[in-house]
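Students often ask why inverse folding is considered easier than folding. One informal answer: many sequences map to the same fold, so there is more than one right answer. In these notes we will look at a single instance of the problem. The structure comes first.
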């Protein structure tokens, strides 16, 4: 029996710290000057269900435009969802307002992708880090300065940097400042939206190691959003693959990387370079035809069928449910998941390296 997506997502993570059920985020398209009327909608997130256990890191991967960052912004309520639920413990984040929303933001923080854009250039480093503590009143004025210096050292920066401005730092140092700001009010959950994609390769491992160390010290839970599969493999024990506003596959890291059950996942994995010239020479890419469809005009049936090498008539007519294909909490939304194995053998995804 096929269970609803929300039910399967909850069943896959008993005692979930965060549970998203049928989350929808549509951005209306309007027309008119004096009287505006809606003529369509950008369906950025279109019915997503997933869960995250306390203390774990869930990797969320997919192409640009798949809706990954929109989910993260909904969780911290930069966007109010069109519909659906986001349960954080017993609280529905989608319904939080006023003082309740303020308390939610004390428990959930976000690290943004671009450290050059996420820090106000008019504020000193000390002001940037201390502002959340002042707003949430988690420390007295006398304590805030001392705690800010301690946070700088905790993320690997000199406490003497407290009076400097963001333009005086490198990209990696700015991201450390952004992380210090995020943990300043001791949250439980952090949404990390492409936290290393704007950084040099040599700096990425340092930032990832810092985030993992903070997770161990503070008991943090992460939603780690990225398009880089090799980075996600390194940091996330469980991975969800997203395409055009929907979850296509979600499973433990080993199952996703060694036995993908969705052709989109297999294609993404085949595109990751392997740091072994002999293995790389023998691999065959799974080339997807066409471009990512517009989220304004979603294809009927399976939304991946316009690019899928396994697509048949049923894929054009019937949207496949997200269901457990193996009995090991390996969920995939594909009518022909049993044929993905031969596809990966002809376009091998074996030997994928890590950072």
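Output (designed amino acids):
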């Amino acid at each position: 029996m096929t269970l609803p997506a929300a039910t399967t997502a909850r069943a896959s993570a008993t005692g979930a710290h965060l549970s998203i059920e049928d989350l929808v985020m549509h951005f209306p398209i309007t027309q008119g000057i004096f009287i505006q009327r809606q003529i369509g909608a950008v369906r950025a997130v279109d019915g997503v269900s997933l869960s995250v256990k306390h203390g774990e890191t869930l990797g969320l991967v997919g192409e640009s435009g798949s809706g990954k960052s929109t989910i993260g912004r909904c969780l911290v309520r930069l966007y109010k969802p069109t519909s659906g639920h986001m349960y954080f413990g017993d609280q529905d984040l989608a319904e939080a307002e006023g003082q309740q929303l303020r308390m939610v933001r004390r428990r959930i923080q976000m690290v943004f992708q671009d450290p050059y854009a996420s820090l106000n250039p008019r504020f000193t480093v000390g002001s940037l880090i201390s502002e959340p503590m002042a707003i949430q009143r988690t420390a007295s004025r006398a304590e805030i300065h001392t705690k800010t210096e301690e946070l700088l050292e905790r993320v690997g920066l000199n406490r003497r940097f407290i009076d400097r401005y963001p333009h005086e730092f490198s990209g990696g140092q700015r991201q450390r400042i952004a992380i210090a700001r995020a943990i300043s009010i001791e949250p439980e959950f952090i949404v990390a939206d492409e936290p290393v994609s704007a950084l040099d390769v040599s700096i990425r491992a340092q930032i990832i190691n810092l985030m993992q160390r903070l997770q161990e010290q503070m008991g943090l839970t992460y939603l780690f959003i990225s398009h880089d599969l090799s980075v996600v493999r390194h940091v996330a024990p469980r991975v969800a693959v997203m395409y055009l506003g929907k979850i296509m596959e979600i499973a433990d890291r080993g199952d996703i990387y060694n036995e993908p059950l969705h052709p989109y996942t297999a294609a993404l994995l085949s595109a990751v370079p392997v740091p072994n010239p002999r293995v790389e020479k023998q691999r065959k890419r799974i080339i997807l035809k066409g471009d990512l469809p517009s989220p304004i005009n979603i294809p009927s049936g399976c939304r991946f069928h316009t690019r899928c090498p396994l697509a048949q008539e049923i894929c054009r007519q019937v949207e496949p449910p997200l269901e457990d294909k193996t009995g090991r909490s390996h969920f995939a939304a594909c009518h022909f998941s049993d044929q993905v194995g031969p596809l990966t053998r002809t376009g091998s995804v074996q030997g994928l390296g890590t950072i």
